[in-house]
Amino acid sequence: MMFAQFNNIDRAFQHIKRFSVVFLLSCVLLTSAAVYFSFTFVKENGSRVFILQNGKLLEAIATERKQNLPVELRDHIKTFHRLFFTLDPDEKAITAGIAKALYLADGSAKKAYDNLKESGYYNNLISANISQHLEVDSITLDINHEPYYFTCYATQKLIRSSSTVLRKLVTRGEVRVLESQTDNNPHGFLIQKWETLVNADVNLKAGQP
Fold it and tell me: 63 lies in a domain?
């Protein structure tokens, strides 16, 4: 009789043990599933961007920066060159444009600016009432590794009252990714080791404004 009771107790203990193991495994699986689906939900919603336009909430799709990297790099390079080389015969306008450009590049751009200033380039523009405009024709990029090397091909137009001079401009450098983006540098890139390879007259169109 006593042995039968011991057997019953042992079987009951085994049942409880098996139930506990099954319950524990079920808890682990349930917790793992909850964590997985929560992570998936957060990741999916992290790629959703909502834009408020005309009082309406619109959904946009956010993409990884790597996909837009060439576009952002070209825009950064184009903006820098436009600010640096588009000049009007006004000292304050020149200073303001150059100041904005220098936020987008390192000391190599500042050195180029100082050299032009010391040579009297900006004073000549002002005294001769010359407006200088720049149009970027193309930009080649190597995005296989960082920093990203580039070559910029552009056309400068120097407008005088009596003539218009076109210049071919070719520059090169590399772009480094910064840790943060700011109002002065919205893409968060920095042009470095920047240099001018070609800056030569193409042709002269007399009598054009």
Answer: no
